Amino acid sequence: MKRLMPYFFIGPALLALVALVVYPLLYGVYISFFKTNLANKWDFVGLKNYISVFSDGVFVKQLGVTLKFTAIVVLAHFIIGIFLAMLLNQSRPGITFFRTILVLPWLMPEVVIALIFKWIMNPLYGLLNYGMQLLGLSEGGVSWLGDTKYAFISVVLVCIWKGYPLVMVNALAALQSVSTDIYEAAKVDGANKIQTFFRIILPSIKPVLATTLILDTVWWFKHYTIVYLMTKGGPGSDTSIVSIEIYKQAFDYFNFGKAASMSVVVFFVCLIISKLYRRFLDNED
Length: 285
What we know:
Elements: H1 5-31, E1 34-36, E2 42-44, H2 48-55, H3 58-88, H4 95-107, H5 110-120, H6 127-134, H7 151-176, H8 180-188, H9 193-221, H10 225-231, H11 242-252, H12 256-284
Antiparallel strand pairs: 1-2
Helix pairs in contact: 1-12, 2-12, 3-7, 3-9, 4-7, 5-10, 7-9, 7-10, 9-12, 11-12
Subcellular location: Cell membrane
Pfam family, one: BPD_transp_1
Protein name: ABC transmembrane type-1 domain-containing protein
């Protein structure tokens, strides 16, 4: 009986993992080989769904938009997050208050954030246009989410604001684990602030940043909620990331097989990105 006790403890978690992760993943791969409505139509088509995904060019273009979107958002997250973590890693009066305030965007639901910023950027009664008119920066209402010049960058800025606390919190936790003796030794050796940052601080918190980089990249590569609620992929296809196209294929056009094949491709892209990150960081070490 004692030999079985460990299995009793891990059993519930293992069953939940299989039911919520492994089974949906395998079922999605299975669907990708069929032309189906998930009810009474199951026509085996083999690799035709995968061929159609790459042959029409639309998915490849959206993959490029998604990579561009992810690269900008993640880069900004790390610049802002590490900078704020450095500022918050100090013993000053009121620093706990600022730590709490700056982490709030990550705690807010994505639906709420999307609807709030959609209202702020409304071309008719939005606060952004109203403020610009008061400052004399704009005479008429700018369609921030409906103009091809502004839609992509507007969505990117909202996603940057939403996601930077993840990097900030992880970087702050890593900084607080670094011994103060290292900083004092660097100061004695005559290192300036820039040298201390690149040669002492970053190498010390690199393992945490590497894990955060993978998580943040995968999260925003497959992101859906904010972009869909703000623009639904428009105007045209300027903000049409792959997750929105997968949704449309499944629930607008009822091409569940093609949507599943797109999801499998996205899974492997995320897997490749994480592997490349690991290989690059390991080689750098």
